[in-house]
Write a structure and sequence with these properties.
Blueprint (H helix, E strand, L loop, with lengths): L3 E6 L3 H11 L4 E7 L2 H11 L3 E5 L7 H11 L4 E6 L4 H10 L3 E4 L3 H12 L9
Parallel strand pairs: 1-2, 1-3, 3-4, 4-5
């Protein structure tokens, strides 16, 4: 099987660029980018990524709203919510909206790739 396709959804271009650099040569290919939740949902339907990295706080449609829509419209797509907030309540809300995992932007350098790989292991379920 080839590389997994990843869609980056964040309203800050510098964050998307950093994530793209981080994913270079990892077995994950960035197939597209979106700068708000609504674009993220539209790009998910169009590009059919294996995984969406989704910012929590965005204009037009929040990450929580986008996660719920993606989960409903593309149930097989994995979703990792990425947020600057380290809050157990937000983790719970992200999972309730359909996210498979939640990581903070400050821990992304260390936790993102292991979390991404874990989601594609046989029998992988939702975790924080």
């Amino acid at each position: 099987m080839g590389n997994r396709k990843v869609l980056l959804v964040d309203d800050h271009e510098v964050v998307r660029r950093g994530l793209k650099d981080m994913l270079r040569d990892t077995g994950f290919d960035v197939c597209g980018e979106a700068e708000n939740g609504q674009e993220g949902v539209e790009q998910t339907l169009r590009l059919k990524p294996d995984l969406v990295l989704l910012d929590m706080s965005m204009p037009v449609m929040t990450g929580l709203q986008a996660a719920a829509a993606i989960r409903r419209l593309s149930p097989g797509t994995k979703i990792i919510m990425v947020s600057m907030h380290d809050s157990p309540l937000l983790v719970k809300e992200a999972h309730a909206a359909g996210a498979d995992a939640y990581i903070t932007k400050t821990s992304a350098g260390k936790e993102l790739l292991p979390t991404m790989h874990r989601l594609f292991e046989p029998g992988a379920g939702r975790k924080s």
